[in-house]
UniProtKB/TrEMBL annotation, chain A:
Heterotrimer of A, B and C subunits. It comes from the Bacteria. Belongs to the GatB/GatE family. GatB subfamily. This is Aspartyl/glutamyl-tRNA(Asn/Gln) amidotransferase subunit B. It comes from Acetobacter lambici. SUPFAM superfamilies: GatB/YqeY motif, Glutamine synthetase/guanido kinase. Keywords: ATP-binding, Ligase, Nucleotide-binding, Protein biosynthesis. The gene is gatB. Allows the formation of correctly charged Asn-tRNA(Asn) or Gln-tRNA(Gln) through the transamidation of misacylated Asp-tRNA(Asn) or Glu-tRNA(Gln) in organisms which lack either or both of asparaginyl-tRNA or glutaminyl-tRNA synthetases. The reaction takes place in the presence of glutamine and ATP through an activated phospho-Asp-tRNA(Asn) or phospho-Glu-tRNA(Gln). Its EC number is 6.3.5.-.
UniProtKB/TrEMBL annotation, chain B:
Heterotrimer of A, B and C subunits. It comes from the Bacteria. The keyword Ligase applies. HAMAP family: GatC. The gene is gatC. Coiled coil: none annotated. This is Aspartyl/glutamyl-tRNA(Asn/Gln) amidotransferase subunit C.
Length: 484, 95
């Protein structure tokens, strides 16, 4: 069921394309040796190049190029061995050069594709148009003074990748799924931390509406949306606004707009009136960027396993369901943890424990997988204790909670608390005899045909052994005694 | 190629050059003179010649990903027309 808007004149569908700005992970900036660390004191991570002093020349950071190539490969995209830098001219207080060094005509990465999964399990492919490298601008602070804006150039010149999607997105949910998938891939690759709160990933959203079967109508661009939820909201309100205009006989202007989450509306961005006149031209300070295929191949060969591949492998190798595999690969650290637990053990049981008791414990103790009070090795050890019948599944829950609390090893906890499973037939028989003596009435009922009481006796015997009896052995011995 | 007054005004605005109304016509004529001179290039037949942006045959020199610069705020600020604490300041620009 796709997303549509019912208007007075008929049904409208939405057409969305996203331009994602992803900050490249690197130590120094794209064209200067200043640091990229987030949160430095204002204007301390600025070189003369970043502040656009006369005569300063840009020299490209090799690692930023490598990161863009890795990302291109991760997006199943074509890598262009020849690319070039252009100047995108516009005047703004956060842009000391008066132009942004970007790639216009010859981007480093061409067409690619990302597959996304929707809530209902549908899988869709979203095309990537291109990826290019460009400089970030500085930061303006407007709330420090009634008449002045303050400028911090720490971010000026930091390397960005602009990742442009095809207008393939037809629902707000797809936009959300696309952004989450893109962020996941970038994080796996280690090319962008994907942190939208700190602004290291932000999206420009192109939205238009049309009736089924029509060509594209005029689109609007909503700039700098900084959370996935806001992207989805912005698409909804902007599409509704456009439908309203068309249905009232109006014409949608192609323009740049801002999303105001507080008011739940988009509005025109005045400063961008002249923005479409960027007067691009090749940057005379920079020669063409020419890559060798062998180097690209080497980068591609050394990429980490990406989410889709890992998910397929988890299903095949550990016999877990598609959905579970998706949950376990969502974050690389979780996938690593799971695999350390599952390797050489029962993969399904490992998945149950990681997604069940472990996630619940992390949640309850406000921990992330990185700070988990129970290490993967310890959880694995505990599964071994279940496998070799030292403890049963029920006692394992108790042992696990103790591990969360004390951080001790499962063996130590089992020994200390005497939780070793009772597999001694004599002890089990004794417990059964004691239970039967305590409940002669129930025994009579059972023997007169009320076999539902079998469960009651199992429960009592487990209680008698403080939960430590091997359940299979209890069942067997109990059956023999009762039916004797 | 020849510029009209409106285009001249727009170019000035994009370049953030304050141009008095009375200076517009003179500027237009100067720019048209330059454009006319460049237009002479159109006389050369470049059919089948790929566009070229430079005469260099070298490719881009690259730098290692190391922090080698920065921490020079005082020097930067010394040249700024207006500052407040650790920031440059500009007339308020708010969306």
């Amino acid at each position: 069921m796709s997303y549509t808007i019912e208007g007075r004149t008929g049904t409208w569908e939405i057409v969305v394309g996203l331009e994602v700005h992803a900050q490249i992970i690197s130590h120094s900036k794209l064209f200067s040796g200043a640091s990229t660390t987030f949160g430095g004191a204002p204007n301390t991570q600025v070189s003369l190049v970043d502040a656009a002093f006369p005569g300063m020349l840009p020299v490209i950071n090799h690692e930023c190029v490598a990161q863009a190539v890795r990302t291109g490969v991760g997006l199943n995209a074509q890598i262009n061995l020849f690319s070039r830098f252009d100047r995108k001219n516009y005047f703004y207080a956060d842009l000391p050069q008066g132009y942004q060094i970007s790639q216009f005509e010859h981007p480093i990465v061409g067409k690619g594709v990302v597959s996304i999964e929707l809530q209902n399990g549908d899988v869709r492919e979203i095309g990537i148009t291109r990826l290019h490298i460009e400089q970030d601008a500085g930061k303006l602070l407007h709330d420090q003074d009634p008449t002045k804006s303050f400028v911090d150039l720490n971010r000026s010149g930091v390397a960005l990748m602009e990742i442009v999607s095809e207008p393939d997105i037809r629902e707000p949910e797809e936009a959300g799924a696309y952004l989450r998938k893109l962020r996941q891939i970038l994080r796996y690759l280690g090319t962008c931390d994907g942190n939208m709160e700190e602004g290291s990933m932000r999206a420009d959203v192109n939205v238009s509406v049309r009736k089924a079967g029509e060509p594209f109508r005029t689109r609007c661009e909503i700039k700098n949306v900084n959370s996935i939820r806001f992207v989805m909201q912005a698409i909804e309100v902007e599409a509704a606004r456009q439908v309203e205009i068309w249905e009232n006989g109006g014409e949608v202007d192609q323009e740049t707009r801002l999303f105001d989450p507080g008011r739940g509306e988009t509005r025109t961005m005045r400063s961008k009136e002249d923005a479409h006149d960027y007067r691009y031209f090749p940057d005379p300070d920079l020669l063409p960027l020419v890559l060798e295929q062998a180097w690209v191949d080497e980068l591609a060969a050394n990429l980490p396993e990406l989410p889709d591949a890992k998910r397929a492998r988890f299903q095949a190798e550990y016999g877990i369901a598609f959905y579970d595999a998706g949950v376990l690969v969502a974050e690389q650290a979780v996938a690593e943890y799971y695999e350390a637990v599952a390797r050489g053990r029962d993969g399904k049981l490992a998945a149950t424990w990681v997604m069940g008791d472990l996630f619940a414990a992390l949640n309850r103790t406000s921990n992330s997988i990185e700070t988990s009070p129970v290490s993967a090795a310890a959880l694995g050890k505990m599964l071994d204790l279940i496998a070799d019948k030292t403890i049963n599944g029920k006692i394992a829950k108790e042992v696990f909670e103790d591990m969360v609390e004390t951080g001790e090893s499962p063996d130590a906890i089992v020994e200390k608390k005497g939780l070793r499973q009772v597999t001694d037939t004599g002890a089990i028989d004794a417990a059964i005899t004691a239970v039967l003596e305590k409940h002669p009435d129930k025994l009579a009922e059972y023997r007169s045909g009320k076999d539902k009481l079998f469960g009651f006796f199992v429960g009592q015997v487990m209680k008698e052994t403080k939960g430590k009896a091997n359940p299979a052995m209890v069942n067997e011995a109990l059956k023999a005694k009762l039916d004797a | 190629m020849s510029l009209d007054l409106a285009t001249t005004r727009r170019i000035a605005k994009l370049a953030r050059i304050g141009l008095e109304e009375h200076a517009l016509e003179a500027t237009r004529q100067k720019l048209n003179g330059i454009l006319g001179w460049i237009d002479q290039l159109a006389e050369v037949d470049v059919t089948g010649v790929p566009p070229m942006v430079g005469t260099e045959t070298e490719t881009l020199r690259q730098r290692e990903d190391k922090v080698t610069d920065g921490n020079c705020r005082d020097a930067l600020m010394a040249c700024a027309p207006e500052t407040s604490g650790p920031f440059y300041t500009v007339p308020k620009v708010v969306e």
